[in-house]
From TrEMBL, chain A:
Protein name: Simple sugar transport system permease protein
Principal localisation: membrane
Keyword field: Cell membrane, Membrane, Sugar transport, Transmembrane, Transmembrane helix, Transport
GO cellular component: plasma membrane
Record keyword Lyase present: no
Record keyword Membrane present: yes
Natural source organism: Jannaschia seohaensis
UniProt lineage: Bacteria, Pseudomonadati, Pseudomonadota, Alphaproteobacteria, Rhodobacterales
Transmembrane residue ranges: 62-79, 91-107, 113-133, 145-163, 196-214, 235-260, 280-310, 322-346
GO molecular function: transmembrane transporter activity
Compartments, as annotated in UniProt: Cell membrane
Automatic annotation (TrEMBL), chain B:
Keyword Chaperone: no
First-listed, main subcellular location of the protein, grouped into a coarse class: membrane
Domain ABC transporter residues, every copy: 10-245, 261-505
Example GO molecular function: ATP hydrolysis activity
Pfam families in alphabetical order: ABC_tran
GO cellular component assignments: plasma membrane
InterPro entries: AAA+_ATPase (IPR003593), ABC_carbohydrate_import_ATPase (IPR050107), ABC_transporter-like_ATP-bd (IPR003439), ABC_transporter-like_CS (IPR017871), P-loop_NTPase (IPR027417)
Lineage top rank: taxon: Bacteria
Taxonomic lineage of the native organism: Bacteria, Pseudomonadati, Pseudomonadota, Alphaproteobacteria, Rhodobacterales
Name listed for the protein in its UniProt record: Simple sugar transport system ATP-binding protein
SMART domains in UniProt: AAA
Length: 348, 510
């Protein structure tokens, strides 16, 4: 028995295997729920209800999906060019720092001018955080997986220092948190009385723009060519290093928008727990979306739904919400397996 | 040692192999007798490699059986084939470069649990076999330091040490100098005299004529002819392979024009194991094919890279139309009117997952009409691809199909079309017909000659001496990064060129 590659898998295979992966994931999750002593069917129902069973639940899911769309896009864009950006977490935090530094009163402008400036500043900070590893990669061949990954810890310690020092809120009763941003620096709610803020709208726009960039423009063509075959791209005359730098700016900027959106939209200030691993979860989101920018939106909502649903299920059924992490991990592994199987068949 | 000669050692009966809708072999039957050399001929995609992989147990046939020495071979089990005495020398060698010859030969033959290594006995055995078969190679040399010809000898020794009774050689002479090929044939004759049987796969008809007793011709996965070599001719074999008469391009006199590209005493650094150029001076003239031969790895990659824009001179100058370009990159090379056919069509020439349209515009994408203010104009790009597909007879499902689905020949036609359609002043053709069948090969050669007659300066780099001699108006030889003087058409025999390829004739030759 051996595995053989299929040169052109059919649509049924390409859709069927990922669907099978999600089904398998659901089975694993329900099995775990059973182990925890709950009725698996009820747990599954509670997760779905908790994620999308009411207007409040659905909006909570979309709120949680917002930063994941940004980090998912950041990873998807970079991975397309085979620039292995594992540092979306660091870029997110630097984006948040830029937002807080400029948004807590330093620039006392109306929202219409302040918000765009904050977004651009955040993107610049995030881009910088990825440009350094990219430069080390193109100039000295340093593996960006290592540098971007380690920079996550550097960035978090840097934020921790800022929150204990220069950015510490004097009114914060000693807690390590920044001053809240001024009202003009808050992203408005999408509708009055809803918790959902315009960060979500911005994320959707970003996904569409990235999609257009990748499929319709010369820059996107270059990014895809560099990612698929670097040697052929170089031979054809593409400026490979410039392409990587552009990709890094875009990717780092997108991840930083997650930080901007969380500070200006959701939280209002900066703490060291601003992101419960959005940068890392963005990798799962991007992989589940097969690096497709519009798929990122769907995958981010799915992942956010599992987190939000599991939280609510945990309260109702007494099953630990860690089940959400396990579910996502198995979804990722099952998806990677499914992708492999899509283009392989078993021969005896 | 003549007893048993003529008995059947290998019998392939009615082998059918399908890959989905594609039938690679259909009812192929083949017999190999003791002490016999059988040449397996066929165009690319005719099913030769599939058949060899079935025989070696790498693929399991859908139908049919493999019988070795009267025993049927369990399908899909290379180990069984090895143990039954089948030795395979692949076109691309499977040696560990960082190990010695002896270690490479020993690899896989020893038990993991054996307390003694048995190196001494093995060295004696290798020495004896090398002596017997004329396979000169130092058992303690590191493989990385060996020439291609020496590596091939190691591969053959590997098979002999494992007591192979049947040797399969897949295009063994593709990378050898003429002299090395003659040595190989001498080795094969000794092996046959000792009772081994040989299956020899080659495109080169004169070699088939020289070494084989019998030829079997495959076309579209079926055996279309089988004949004693003595009773057939090269023309006949070529006709059987293709299924049509093939006319080689008739040599036409060249009308050399002005110098388009000039190298003046150019030196380039070595890259990894690839040799750099050492003080190379040459001129590429309009309306002339300049051929470049040499054993693989003697600086061809550096010279091709220099013309293609991937490499810059470390010392010396490169002149395009009399001027030294200030910036020299692949993009400026394309802009300077240099059409480039890369050596590795999969690795450098195309992006496998891109469709034909995207691959067709790879070099021109940043220019009008493909780019309109940074936006890709798919319509122009598709029209361009369709023009190339039509004019250069690229067989494909359509311009939207990923190029990795195409055969090597059709991929090469797309690259050729992409180059020719821009009417370049200079054409770098690096191994333009490697792995192509006779039909595609003749087509590529015709196109190159047509471009020459139109006034293009062509640099043809190939490891195939016959190809270079047939097409070139001037021939240079590269050896260890040094370039020979240019020899006019008809002034050198293959043997004389072969001597230059081994380094004889150069001023600093030892």
């Amino acid at each position: 028995m051996r595995l053989e590659p299929i040169p052109a898998p059919s649509l049924a295979r390409r859709a069927g295997f990922p669907a099978l992966a999600l089904g398998l994931t659901a089975l694993i999750a329900m099995g775990l729920a059973a182990l925890a002593g709950a009725a698996p069917g009820e747990v599954a129902w509670l997760v779905v209800k908790g994620a999308a069973g009411s207007k409040f639940a659905l909006l909570e899911t979309l709120n949680r999906a917002t930063p994941l769309i940004f980090t998912g896009l950041a990873v998807a864009v970079a991975f397309r060019a085979k620039l292995w950006n594992i540092g979306a977490e660091a870029q997110l935090y630097l984006g948040a720092v830029a937002t807080v530094v400029l948004g807590t009163g330093l620039l006392d402008w109306p929202a219409a001018t302040l918000l765009p400036v904050l977004a651009v500043a955040a993107m610049a900070a995030g881009a910088l955080a990825l440009l350094v590893p990219t430069f080390l990669k193109t100039r000295f061949g340093v593996d960006e997986v290592v540098t971007t990954l380690l920079l996550n810890f550097v960035a978090l310690l840097f934020v921790s220092y800022l929150l204990e020092g220069p950015l510490k809120d004097p009114m914060g009763l000693g807690w390590p948190k920044s001053e809240p941003v001024i009202d003009a620096a808050r992203l408005p709610r999408i509708a009055e009385g809803l918790r959902l803020h315009w960060g979500f709208g911005l994320a959707l726009i970003a996904a569409v723009l990235v999609w257009i960039l990748q499929t319709r423009t010369i820059w996107g063509f270059e990014i895809r060519a560099v990612g698929l075959n670097l040697k052929a791209a170089r031979f054809a005359g593409m400026p490979v290093n410039a392409v990587l730098v552009r990709t890094a700016i875009l990717s780092g900027g997108l991840a930083a928008l997650a930080g901007f959106s969380e500070v200006a939209g959701a939280k209002g200030n900066l703490t060291t727990d601003l992101s419960p691993g959005f940068g890392y979860t963005g990798i799962i989101v991007a992989m589940l979306a097969l690096l497709h920018p519009l798929g990122v939106v769907v995958a981010a909502i799915f992942v956010a739904g599992i987190f939000v649903g599991a939280d609510s299920m945990s309260r109702a059924a007494g099953v630990p919400s860690f089940i959400a992490d396990i579910t996502l991990a198995s979804a990722l592994l099952a998806m990677i397996l499914a992708l492999g199987l899509t283009s392989l068949r078993i021969r005896r | 040692m003549t007893e048993g000669f003529g008995e059947t050692v290998l019998r392939l009966a009615d082998i059918t192999v399908r890959f989905g809708p594609v039938t690679a072999n259909e009812g192929v039957s083949l017999e190999l007798r003791r002490g016999e050399v059988v040449a397996l001929l066929g165009e690319n995609g005719a099913g030769k490699t599939t058949l060899m992989n079935v025989l070696f147990g790498l693929y399991a046939a859908d139908e049919g059986s493999v019988e070795l020495f009267g025993q049927s071979l369990p399908p899909g089990n290379p180990r069984a084939a090895l143990e039954a005495g089948v030795g395979m020398v692949h076109q691309h060698f499977t040696l560990a470069e960082n190990l010695t010859v002896l270690d490479n030969i020993a690899l896989g033959t020893r038990s993991l649990w054996s307390p003694v290594s048995g190196t001494r006995a093995l060295r004696a055995r290798v020495r004896a076999l090398a002596e017997e078969y004329g396979l000169r190679v130092d058992p303690d040399a590191t493989v990385a330091n060996l020439t291609v010809g020496q590596r091939q000898r190691v591969e053959i020794l590997k098979a002999l040490v494992r007591d192979a009774r049947i040797l399969i050689l897949d295009e063994p002479t593709a990378v050898l100098t003429p002299q090395e090929s003659l040595d190989l044939f001498a080795t094969l004759r000794r092996a046959v005299a000792n009772g081994l049987s040989i299956l020899f796969i080659s495109h080169k008809l004169h070699e088939v004529e020289a070494v084989s007793d019998r030829v079997v011709v495959l076309r579209h996965g079926r055996v279309v002819a089988e004949a004693a070599t003595a009773q057939t001719s090269r023309a006949e074999m070529a006709r059987l392979m293709v299924g049509a008469d093939i006319a080689a391009p008739a040599p036409r006199p060249a009308r050399p024009g002005p110098v388009r590209v000039a190298l003046r005493d150019v030196t380039t650094p070595a890259r990894g194991t690839a040799t750099g150029l050492r003080g190379v001076s040459m001129e590429l003239r309009a309306g002339q094919v300049t051929g470049l031969v040499g054993v693989s790895g003697n600086g061809q990659t550096a010279l091709a890279g220099l013309i293609a824009g991937l490499e810059r001179p470390e010392r010396g100058t490169l002149e395009i139309d009399g001027k030294t370009p200030a910036v020299w990159t692949p993009r400026t090379a394309v802009r300077a009117g240099i059409g480039r056919i890369p050596e590795d069509r999969h690795g450098e020439g195309t992006v496998g997952d891109f469709d034909l349209t995207e691959n067709a515009m790879m070099e021109l994408y940043s220019r009008w009409p493909f780019s309109r203010a940074g936006w890709i104009d798919r319509t122009s790009a598709r029209a361009w691809a369709q023009k190339i597909i039509k004019r250069y007879d690229v067989r494909c499902p359509g311009p939207e199909a990923p190029i990795r689905l195409l055969s090597g020949g059709n991929m090469q036609k797309l690259i050729l079309g992409r180059v020719m359609e821009t009417a370049p002043d200079v054409i770098l053709a690096n191994q333009p017909v490697r792995g192509l069948d006779i039909g595609a090969l003749t087509y590529v050669h015709e196109q190159l000659l047509a471009a020459r007659d139109r006034g293009a300066a062509i640099l043809l780099i190939s490891e195939d001496l016959d190809e270079v001699i047939a097409l070139s108006d001037v021939i240079h030889v590269l050896s260890e990064g040094r370039l020979s003087p240019g020899f006019e058409r008809g002034t050198m025999t293959p043997t004389e060129l072969g001597a230059w390829m081994t380094g004889a004739g150069f001023e600093d030759a030892a």
